[in-house]
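Our collaborator T.R. sent over the components below with a one-line note: 'Predict the complex.' Nothing else. No constraints on interfaces, no templates requested, no preferences about which chain binds where. So this is a plain run: every listed entity goes in together, and whatever single assembly comes back becomes the starting point for the next discussion.
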Amino acid sequence: MTDRQFLQCMDAYGADPVRWPPELRAAAEQALAASPALRAALREAEAFDGLLGGLPPVVEEARVSRLLSVVGEAARATPQNAAPETLMVLLLGRMPRRMAATLCVTLVALGWLAGSLALPTGLPRPPTRDVALLSDDVVTLFDGDSR
Amino acid sequence: MSDTDSDGALMARVAGGDAGAFDRLAARHMRRAVALAQRMTGNPSDADEIAQDAFLRVWQHAARWDGARAAFTTWLYRIVVNLAIDRGRRPGWDPLEAAGELPDSAPDAVTQIAERQTAALVNRALDALPDRQRAAVVLFHQEGLSLKQAAEILGMNETAFASLLARARAALKTALAAGRMPS
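Returned assembly:
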């Protein structure tokens, strides 16, 4: 890791290499051990990180107890929502996502295969009928008046 | 902590309507949830409301939590952060100047004043950040969460989170350099 890369990481992740992405840590420690300039920069960054850490908010025991009492009562007075059940879950039951995805792909493939077997490609297709709606046939709920 | 007393086991019971399990879970995590909400809002009364609302949502939607996808604390902190961001977007919302309480062991009055001024300056700079940048700093630097945990809470990958954090740190550095830092 070059000095420049070290400084970029320090700007991004802060002054504690232990909290950097694991794959960077060993190289960062090596760079730090080899460079007095990086160690000086690290001390400055530690001071900045100390400011960002701030003072922890005080949460008194009485406050926590009051909140626990309130949420406990509220929970007992509030019905729970069931997990959202999709049609597939209702039909097939719960299963891992990967298995569900595999099942869906298989069903689509089977449907495509069945369709292509049922309709030989050599046969003429039935004619389609063009459908047009006359304006008088369309029911309109909005009369255009914005009121 | 035994398996039957783990967050996951308690959540399974909560999903089944066990209010006692909910009480245990809330007792375990309430203090940290309130502290996180207060860090995000800078306002104790808002923090209390957010924490209550967050735990009520845990109760209501317990069946939706999937332990294979996220730890309970990740899910809870995500709820808290989202509620705090929503509250900050309400018209008329005004965070108090909450610089935190100084510990009793502070050496003397001058040091206390200097530390309070510094904390107020940092809080103002944090308040001026976009919501998610502020959340990144709170989660990583103030709550001490790992890159991975903080990224999961904000629903992004680690690379995107690192970029968000870097932008936040750069903005704070500029803001704090522009302000007068008490020595």
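Summary for T.R.: The CA atoms of residues 134 and 140 of chain A lie 12 Å apart.
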